[in-house]
Structure formats: structure tokens, C-alpha cells
Inverse folding.
């Protein structure tokens, strides 16, 4: 008999079926026992009255993997209106050692560090697995939106001979006796691939040796990177980003509707035009001094509230960040060269995306590095490509874990990451 | 005027359009000049008769990025039946330095090392970019096939505290002062995630410090990993793999039809049932001694020829590899415990996929490590999860670059990898 998933039970009333999953919970009452089975699709209730089956059940603690063959019986008070009766229960492995927290309670009450120490079991809790389902759907939506716009997926090196963004915050490793570094972003490679495909994206791990321990930083996170050529300026990039976000949230709504319901959240609408304010205007709105070179998290929160209040938008673009605070490959605003054609996207008052137009002329790169007093040599292989014809281009990078955390209302990105890596954590 | 791509020109005959791209080739004849523009969609021919435009063109070497505004004119002898006449040509950057090989010739004649040294420009050649388009389509097909079968995409750590497969061939790095390693595979994590979602997949980089220099090994490659629970044995895994390959080749045929045509190849059919031979039978077919513990590349080639001759199949499963040659997490064949429930899939005589059923009982893991004289401690965090209820499960891993190389007939995996990493190569 073919195994069926728990959500198919209602279509089998009156028939004998086989299900399999984890012992989610046992309730051993005086005259009857209830067994709740958890599988990939949800929960199923099994009613046990046979003393022999009950005796067997008493030896199978929570999380034991079992197979249940039983009759599907309608019961208006049971989950989804059906329960399984007259079961035989066969363990598919030895009795489980229950994890150090109860997975059957509505909320995981263990502290976050305890959950992370026991990630393989903690992730089985519906609240944790739901966030990862949202994450998977968001990535699928990212790809679908860009595939539909003729972007080509690329896979680039994660080990590089020099650091991308700056010398700090890189992990060093030994590459067959040579010094090498984990890539902080696919920035250079996605730019080079614009020379090949015009439009590219990559979903992959990036590594930041962040020495500080915050609720929004990880030492490895999943970066959703896109880059496109033949742009007029950064506004073309912002339009693609807007459509990509809409695609991500659309697929989350379709594929992860159950997960959103489990988490009690709804996906926000992306406005047809995301409101945008220039950096100088953002400082004013945030009540910051006019000579601040960057936005602090408190400023971003204030701006997020403003966007919601004034525009009904969960999203806000801040454009024209000062050049001094952006990486050397950033394209300046031709009209106000102290400001950049770079932007951030705030999602509910937190920086979610960084993007912008990049330099595309070889000479501009040399000038930009010289102006910063940085040597050309570490970037030589990358810069060389700009001598061979590169179109005006730009792109963006979305931090997946931050996006999901903001979307589901998790206070810490670690709550929506399967096996986080940070200053302190290298296992499990 | 909105820019259009070259493949849209035939629908604009008689109209003025704007295209943009790279100067693929100039042919400066006496009374007329031909300019071939390359964009993401292909090539377009521009006819230049105006002496002023021609003079401009003489200053724009191959690979310069330009914008052309011109009239679309029908011409049966031109590519796709149209050409652009009466053009204005505007460079979008400085004149390009031509790369050290001609991208406009039908084949890239530079040696592979020269191509790899100049990857950003070499990849612009249609033969190189076509292989990467096939690669992107193959990955899209992998995901689509597994999404349709309720697999959930996961993202797992690429830095781990102990090595997955064995102590050799790992890259060591410094993780905030602690020793750590680049992950050789997501093996343990995908198994743990079967405990959460039952069925999972991951597309991501894996790292092997391979000290040898061959045409089929890379130090970083893209692994297409899948793992599924509640299997009877490895044959359930093989069925999913078969369907996944069909999905991959299906999407390659749909999305990368032009790329396949450029490369002059057709995607093979996946038989409804891929032929399978037991390892012992494979030795006989390959003419190898009966006590060989593994298949050598020459044996695999012979087996590939046999599968094509006897079954008309480009694919062949070899099942039941000796336990001694498989990793400790491999499930033995219950009927013949010296042989495993592990398999390889040969594609045109080369090992493409390794997979099998895994151990799922904690006690079996302890016994397997003890039998090999391996300590438990490095695997403790991973093994612990098996105390908390894991279903019978198995999975497989497809090496993306090998798959694409075999599919397009590339002799070296480096020909189908954008920026390969190996013993000698860490740039670009």
C-alpha cells in the first residue's frame, strides 16, 4: 500500500491507508490513546483503543518515526474532519530520545541559543520550519522574476585572491599553500558577467568576518544578487528591484501560504512605485544633522515609519548616498558628484537591499582608487575587463535572512536561518 | 526611444529603432562598411555608407560598447533577413582594447589557459556563453523537477568545524581564531533537514582540496544535492534521480535550445527506466577482475559503451558498490552486507552522480565508525540528530560542471565553468 501524506486523508474516508511520520504527541488517557503523527504535510490524529497497540505506543516516545496503517474515519471535531481508527503502528527505527524541548507545544519555549544548539530538532517545530518554507519561496520568486526578464543565473567563485569590499572582515584560508579569502560578495563577478549576458543573477553564500554580535548580522548569509547592463542610471536598477520584490512576495503568497498562516503574518503589497527620498531629504525626515555621512539604525526606523504613514508603503528607497560612504565601484551622480547613484531599500525601517549604478569606464576605476589612496594591484584582474568594453550597468543584493526575518517578524535573523554561522557559532 | 534586442528586429522592418551592444566585428570595405553588433539576444548587421559615420566607426575597435539608431531594412541575405541602414553610432564608453583573441571567429582558437586567464572576455564568445546558458537551464530544471515533487530548497553552512567525508582534501581556514573547514558537501545537513521537511535540495558550491590536476576535477564546483525520507531503499532514490534528470534535460531543451544549436548538440533522452547493473556484474561487463574494489575510468567508459549498445541509453546505474569504498553513512544491502545500497550514475561513460540509501539509526552510525576505526567525536553534533528519530532516507549529488561538460561534449570541465578554481588557479 502506497504511503499517503496527512493532508490527503479527507479524500480517503472509509478506506484503509498507510501514513508515516514522527510521533508528534501521545495522549495516553484511561480508555483511549491519541497519537498525533507529523509528516511533511501536517498533522494526523490516530485513535488507539486496542490494548496491544496502546502497549506498543507506550514504548515509542515523541519524535520516534513510525508507520501507521489504519482506517480513515470522519470526525467533525478532529483536525481536518478526519481521524485514523483501528491502527497498526510500526516503528521505522528505534524509539527516539525526545529533544530537550517539547516540539508539540504551540510555541518553542526554549531560549534561542538552546534552539540553535539543537537545530536539527528545533527546526522541526512548525514555527521554525514555516520560516524556512517562506525563505525557499522567496528565493523561488527571486529567480522567477529575473528569469522572466531574461536574466541568466551564474555561479561564481567563493574563494578569491583578494577581498572585494575592503581588507577588513574577510576570512583567510590556505589555498594549496597560497593565501586566499572567502568572497564577501559576488560583486566583481556579477559585473564581469554583465559583459557576457547583460543581465545575471546569483543566489549563493557570502562570508563576512563580522566581529560584532548583533541580531541582524551573520558571518555566512545567502545573498540574492542581480546585475544588469545598458541602464540609464540607478533608477533602471530600482525598477527591476521593485518588480523582483513583487515577484518574491507573490511566490511567498502562493507557495508558502500555509507557512504564513502558521506564523500569523500576511505578505505586504509592493507599491507600483516605491517611494524614494534623496539621502539629504532622508536626513531631514529622520531629524538627523545635515552633515551626517550615513543613516543610523534609528534614522532608518524613523524613515520606515514615515513611509508607512505618508505613503502606506512598507518599502522606501533612499537614493544618493554620499560617495564617501559607498564602495569605490559606485557611480557618482553626474549632477552632484559628492553624492552617488547608489541606493538602499528600507523594508519596515531596516536596510534590506543595497544597490546602485557602478562605474563602467576603466579610467574611472583608476581615478576612484587613486582618490581613495587604494592600490590598483589587488583589483587588477577585475579592472582589466573594463578595458574591453563594458556597458553602463548596476545591480543590487538582497540579504535573504534579513528579508525573511522582517517579513515574518522575527527579532533575530538566526530564527530564520537553519544553521547560522557567527562570531560564536560554528556548529551544528 | 526604447532599446530593442537584436532578435526583435524582424518585427520592426521600415521603422527606426535603437539597439545597443558590443562591436562584434567591423568590415571596412571600400565603398561600404559593415558593423556587426552583439547583444544578449544575438547579432545584428549594420550597413554604413555615410563617410562621417564610417570615420567614427574606424575609432571604435571590436568590443567597444555602442548604441546604434537606424532603420530596419529587409535583406534576404542578411542574418534573420534584416539589416540596419542609415545608422548613427554612439559609443557608450571609451574605445575598447580588443582582447588577446578574436571573439568574432566561429571558434575560440586561444589555448584553454589563455581563455581562462582572460575569462571575462573569453566567456563572451558564443561557444563559451552557450555552455553557461545550458548550465543555467540545467539548474532551473533540477529545481523545477524537485519543486514539483514537494522538495524544499535549503541553504546550509559552507564552513564547518569538521570535515564531511574524511580528513583529506579539505581547505582549512581561521574562523575568528578557531580552526574550521570549507564544506566538502552538504551531506550531513541535507540528511538532518530530511528530519524537518522529508525532502530537500540544495544548489551550492562545494570545496575539494584535490591535489591532482585532471580534466574532470575542480576545487570548487556546483553540487546539485537532493535527499528524501521514507524510502524503501536506494531504488526510490534512483527513481527520483531519473525523473530529475529528465526534468533537467527538458528545461535545457526548452530554455537553451539556441545554446544547444550554437554548440551543435542535442539533449539525450532519459529512458523511462534507466538500465542498472550490480557492481559485481559491472566488473564482468567491464572485463575487470572480480576482486576489484572500484571501477576505474576505463571500466566506466566500457560500461557506457555497453549501455548505449545494449540499451540505447546514455545513462547507466551501477548499484551495490562495495561498502569498503563508500563513506561511513552508506546503508549496506541487507541481503549482502559487504555491498551497499549505494549507486553511481554513469553518463556517457563518466561518473556523474553518486547516491544511495543512508544509515538512519544512531546505533548503526556508531557501529559503522567503530568498524572503520574512526572516532565519533568529530561527527557528534551530526550523529546526535539520529537519536531523535530519523526515517529511512537517501539522496544523490550531481556535479553540475561534469553534467554540462558531458552534455555539450567539452573535454575539460573548465570549458563550462565561468571562473574555475583548481590547484593552480585562483584568479580571475
Amino acid at each position: 500500500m502506497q504511503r499517503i501524506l496527512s493532508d490527503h486523508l479527507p479524500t480517503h474516508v472509509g478506506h484503509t491507508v498507510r501514513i508515516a511520520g514522527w510521533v508528534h504527541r501521545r495522549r495516553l488517557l484511561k480508555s483511549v490513546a491519541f497519537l498525533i503523527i507529523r509528516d511533511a504535510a501536517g498533522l494526523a490524529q490516530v485513535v488507539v483503543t486496542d490494548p496491544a497497540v496502546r502497549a506498543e505506543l507506550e514504548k515509542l516516545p515523541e519524535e520516534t518515526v513510525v508507520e501507521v496503517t489504519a482506517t480513515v474515519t470522519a470526525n467533525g471535531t478532529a483536525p481536518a474532519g478526519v481521524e485514523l481508527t483501528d491502527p497498526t503502528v510500526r516503528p521505522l527505527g528505534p524509539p527516539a530520545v525526545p529533544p530537550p524541548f517539547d516540539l508539540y507545544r504551540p510555541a518553542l519555549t526554549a531560549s534561542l541559543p538552546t534552539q540553535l544548539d539543537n537545530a536539527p530538532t528545533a527546526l522541526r517545530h512548525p514555527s521554525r520550519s514555516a520560516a524556512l518554507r517562506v525563505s525557499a519561496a522567496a528565493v523561488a520568486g527571486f529567480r522567477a522574476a529575473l528569469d522572466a526578464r531574461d536574466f541568466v543565473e551564474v555561479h561564481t567563485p567563493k574563494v578569491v585572491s583578494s577581498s572585494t569590499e575592503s581588507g577588513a572582515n574577510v576570512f583567510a584560508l590556505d589555498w594549496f599553500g597560497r593565501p586566499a579569502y572567502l568572497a564577501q560578495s559576488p560583486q566583481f563577478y556579477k559585473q564581469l558577467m554583465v559583459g557576457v549576458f547583460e543581465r545575471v543573477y546569483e543566489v549563493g553564500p557570502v562570508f563576512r568576518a563580522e566581529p560584532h554580535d548583533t541580531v541582524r548580522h551573520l558571518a555566512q548569509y545567502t545573498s540574492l544578487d542581480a546585475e544588469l547592463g545598458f541602464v540609464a542610471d540607478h533608477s533602471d536598477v530600482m525598477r527591476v528591484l521593485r518588480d523582483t520584490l513583487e515577484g518574491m512576495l507573490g511566490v511567498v503568497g502562493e507557495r508558502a501560504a500555509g507557512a504564513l498562516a502558521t506564523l500569523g503574518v500576511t505578505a505586504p503589497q509592493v507599491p507600483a512605485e516605491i517611494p524614494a527620498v534623496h539621502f539629504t531629504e532622508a536626513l531631514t525626515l529622520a531629524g538627523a544633522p545635515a552633515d551626517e555621512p550615513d543613516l543610523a539604525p534609528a534614522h532608518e526606523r524613523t524613515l520606515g515609519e514615515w513611509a508607512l504613514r505618508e505613503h502606506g508603503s512598507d518599502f522606501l528607497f533612499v537614493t544618493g548616498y554620499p560617495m564617501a560612504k559607498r564602495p569605490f565601484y559606485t557611480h557618482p551622480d553626474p549632477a552632484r558628484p559628492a553624492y552617488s547613484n547608489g541606493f538602499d531599500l528600507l523594508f519596515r525601517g531596516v536596510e534590506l537591499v543595497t544597490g546602485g549604478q557602478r562605474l563602467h569606464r576603466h579610467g574611472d576605476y583608476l581615478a576612484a582608487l587613486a582618490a581613495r589612496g587604494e592600490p590598483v594591484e589587488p583589483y587588477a584582474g577585475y579592472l582589466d575587463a573594463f578595458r574591453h568594453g563594458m556597458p553602463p550597468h548596476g545591480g543590487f543584493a538582497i540579504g535573504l535572512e534579513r528579508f525573511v526575518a522582517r517579513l515574518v517578524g522575527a527579532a533575530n535573523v538566526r530564527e530564520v536561518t537553519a544553521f547560522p554561522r557567527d562570531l560564536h557559532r560554528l556548529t551544528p
Observations:
- The first strand of chain A starts at residue 16 and ends at 28.
- The domain at 6-91 of chain A is CATH 2.40.50.140 (OB fold (Dihydrolipoamide Acetyltransferase, E2P)).
